[in-house]
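Please, why this fold?
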Amino acid sequence: MKSLVLALVLVVPLAGRADPNSCKPADYRGKVVLITFFSQYTRDEAQRVNDTIERRAPKSGVSLISVFDLAGIPSGLHEYARGRLAKATEGRRIRYLVDDGGLCRIAHGANPAGQIDILVLDRNGTVLRHYIGEQRVPEALAAVAQLSER
């Protein structure tokens, strides 16, 4: 099983610059974590997935994270894309993060350019399940609910 340690150090918050200290794995220890990966190519499906997850995931003891991969966006437009995403996701329960160099995607074998990857992590930061696609959201939510009850 892969650990969340590498992933969260490599992902940067939407509002800030690349500050690896702002996304420490310790921030999520003790909580069940559900992470989705998406890109500009899968944003419509990601919107539906994240809306469903936000509505149906347990309210306490669970962190919801959605990682936006900048693949396919010219580097000169990264700040613009980051700003648009931050504005569009303001006030959401899900914490949106940007994977600047794709390292988080690579570390977890995600392919946000072609699919929505959904990871479920236990309270120790270990990836327990890796689901692919919108049709697998109910299974991911069931796994999160079961883990959050423990």
Q: What stands out?
A: Confidence is low (pLDDT under 50) at residues 1-25. The longest strand covers residues 32-39.
